[in-house]
Amino acid sequence: MSGKVPQVNLVFDEPVQRKKTPKHLADFGPSERKAFAEELGFPGYRASQIATHYFSHLSNDPKLWSDIPADTRQGIADALTPKLIELVTTRTTDNGMTRKDLWKLHDGVLVESVLMRYTDRVTVCISSQAGCGMNCPFCATGQAGLTRNLSAGEITEQIVAAARACANGELPGGPTRLSNIVFMGMGEPLANYNAVIRTVRNITDPNPDGLGISARSVTVSTVGLVNGIEKLTEEGISVTLAVSLHTPDDELRDTLVPINNRFNIREVLAAADLYEKKTGRRYSIEYALIRDINDQSWRADLLGRLLKNRNAHVNLIPLNPTPGSKWTASRREDEAEFVRILESYGVPVTVRDTRGREIDGACGQLAAAEKASPAS
């Protein structure tokens, strides 16, 4: 099976010199931030003050930091919270309730995040890598290849920017609070393990050390890096684990999710089961429905038999087609039959709300479109 499109590099046309990502307060744990400040020549207590402004008040304007001498505010801000991401463009749909932001990193690399407001929650979907090395042929990011890992600061900045947009009332409905974070944007989170775990702790640590959002409101996805799932199991953070399975048979998954050649379905589900046993958290099976590829009734039957005695929930995802690719979403009747068969096995299943199709909502599409634009 092919279906790949030509690779797209997630950088601007001009060649960029790969520079080391500046260190940021969010790259460090609470106990390390004092030493970070002191290494830069500031009193250690300034780190706690800046953390309070950053995580509790979501403030990126040092002019408002009244507990710090006015003549030193900008210098401290530049040193401890350097600008890591810059907004390139924003697209909205669903009457403004879905917003996709394209960010340029310090070295010109492009990444994306998506902010979605629902009646009962506000969710941001963030990127953990620029591009992705997993090479899944139906995914725009997978087609692009991996450019580099993001730092914890770069990942956290996406989340803090989303939280600030919520607090400032930038979404319809007025000011609100960011409630859910999903690591389902560009990249394979468990392939950038240390930065992702530092970010998860930045999310879940209480104010002023972090954003104070419950681990139960954080979802970390993976295509099935068993060693990463095993490490996550030992972290003691009860986030929701989401496994991008996409088919219940190894033969097809070897092609759809090439890492399956290293970690097969049996091994992935065994690792997910251990995570569920250790944390008590039901895990999610992500399944992108692709017309005439993985949406057959017999595959639904096989998936139902695989999951019927497991504490797992299936999240069916109508594929957001990638321009130029043969991959497309399943027919509605095939989707409905897939759901019916899973439910007949007692497997909990939902069909994901297909937001963002009008704004290149799938991971990597907006970055690819921006790269292809003459204005870039």
How would you characterize this protein structure?
The protein has about 375 residues and is an alpha/beta fold. It has 2 domains: about 25-80, DNA polymerase, domain 1 (Orthogonal Bundle), CATH 1.10.150; about 85-370, TIM Barrel. Helices cover about 35% and strands about 20% of the residues. It contains 12 helices and 12 strands. A 10-stranded mixed sheet has the order 1-2-3-4-7-8-9-10-11-12, covered by helices on one side. It is elongated, with a radius of gyration of 21 Å.
What attributes characterize this protein structure?
376 residues; alpha/beta; 12 strands; 10-stranded mixed β-sheet; disordered N terminus; two-stranded antiparallel sheet; 33% helix; DNA polymerase, domain 1; TIM Barrel; single chain
Do you know the CATH topology of the largest domain?
TIM Barrel
Overall pLDDT: 91
Q: How many domains is the backbone divided into? A: 2
Number of strands: 12
H and E string = HHHEEEEEHEHEHEHEHHEHEHEH
What's the number of helices?
Answer: 12
Largest sheet: 10 strands, mixed
Helix-strand category: alpha/beta
Helix % is 25-40%
**In CATH's first tier, which class of the largest domain applies?**
Alpha Beta
